Task: inverse folding
């Protein structure tokens, strides 16, 4: 019987060790993948920043010369929309970090400034960044007692509620000229389909799609109204000619 217990303990230990090894491997792979993705993103952003006029000229050259004006107009609309998204997100980061810092100072949580900076930076990921920054804040609060950890959690949840229901829809929606309801649906759809990356890119992608939609709708309306204007001009010209002939 003792041999059986020892054998079960050894088997259980091996299984636990195998699970720990597997988790560690997945964690290492995830961290490496995240750093590789970040490095590639920064590299692409650097190349774009260095030669942005050349990149714009390349895509502009894909269209015939008579469409260059429309291309410039569309690019300008996209730039205004994305600039609004960036401004709105930076404003949310500032407000989030400030509210976090004030609350942690009141609660006298250790490393309040550092935790507030982390919370503000992570809030660049709409809604879900606040959740990620909650863990270290609560852990540092728990080092001074369960009550302080609970109070810190309640404060962060309050900020998260304000951010999700007011800051993100209102500030980003106003800056990017997108209705707040569409912002919320875009965030939920992006997170559901692609996780945190989808949540991060949801609003910029929505801004681009809405800009394209508005541009092509305007183009279609102009295409429909142009023949009517031509017919009216032709009718006026025919009427003028008929009057001259009659006289």
Result:
């Amino acid at each position: 019987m003792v041999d059986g217990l020892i054998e079960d303990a050894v088997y259980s230990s091996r299984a636990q060790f195998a699970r720990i090894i597997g988790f560690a491997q997945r964690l290492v792979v995830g961290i490496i993948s995240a750093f590789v993705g970040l490095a590639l993103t920064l590299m692409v952003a650097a190349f774009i920043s260095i030669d942005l006029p050349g990149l714009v000229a390349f895509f502009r050259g894909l269209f015939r010369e008579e469409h260059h004006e429309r291309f410039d107009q569309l690019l300008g609309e996209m730039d205004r929309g994305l600039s609004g998204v960036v401004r709105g997100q930076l404003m949310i980061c500032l407000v989030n970090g400030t509210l976090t810092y004030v609350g942690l100072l009141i609660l006298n949580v250790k490393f309040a400034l550092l935790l507030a900076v982390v919370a503000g930076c992570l809030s660049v990921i709409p809604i879900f960044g606040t959740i990620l920054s909650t863990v270290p804040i609560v852990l540092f609060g728990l080092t001074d007692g369960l009550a302080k950890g609970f109070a810190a959690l309640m404060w962060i949840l309050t900020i998260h509620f304000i951010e999700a229901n007011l800051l993100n829809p209102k500030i980003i929606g106003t800056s990017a000229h997108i209705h707040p309801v569409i912002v919320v649906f875009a965030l939920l759809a992006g997170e559901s389909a692609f996780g945190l990356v989808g949540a991060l890119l949801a609003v910029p992608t929505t801004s681009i799609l809405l800009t394209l939609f508005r541009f092509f709708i305007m183009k279609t309306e102009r295409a429909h109204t142009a023949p009517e204007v031509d017919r009216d001009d032709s009718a006026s010209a025919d009427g003028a000619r008929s009057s001259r002939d009659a006289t």
Remarks:
- The radius of gyration is 29 Å.
- The chain has two domains: 1-57, 73-224.
- The mean pLDDT is 76.
